[in-house]
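Same chain as my last thread, 226 residues:
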Amino acid sequence: MRWVRKIAAILLASALSSVASAQTRVDLQLVLAVDASGSVNQTRFEMQRSGYAAAFRNPQVLNAILSGPTQSIAVTMVQWTGPSMQVHVIPWALIKDRATAGAFAEAIDTAPRQLFGGGTSISGAIDYGQSIMASGPFQGSRRVIDISGDGSNNRGRSAAAARDDAVRDGTIINGLPILSLEPDLDRYYRDNVIGGPGAFVVSAASYETFAAAILKKLVAEIAMAR
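reply #2:
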């Protein structure tokens, strides 16, 4: 597929700029899990996508990365809906300078939406995030799955059960609930989704405020990896 080849080309410079092996240590391994369920129309999806891309172009994110011991993080992105409906849309990428951060932002802009419905399975997103955590060529001092979405878990096993399994394996779950449809979703995320040392929630009151929320959240996540 053209978009796969284009994303691979965008990230190739990042991959070639360091020796990516199982021993490549980074301050943070971060899985960005983006809601693509039926409640997320195309406009809302594009607001999420543009918010993530803008964050990786923001100097605050790069400054946070460069403040860590290895001055690098590894990031990947998935889209999720139902219990077995997840797509790994951007492969693991090393972010260590302005060029690699910009390349990852471009990859976000380029990756098309792959899912359009199937329920809201936060548990499936967590389980899938866990499955790809060991698939990349990086070893992070902290491992984080970052869940963003606009609804509570309504498919598959409970979100709390998936969270507990991930936390037992050493992964931290952070959340970015979008409160457009469920005004108390932040409370649900605190009780059922987030977990692990220092886990936290940053809420977006609406899709229009998503970009500001994800910027705040990424800076905090990266800073905690020091």
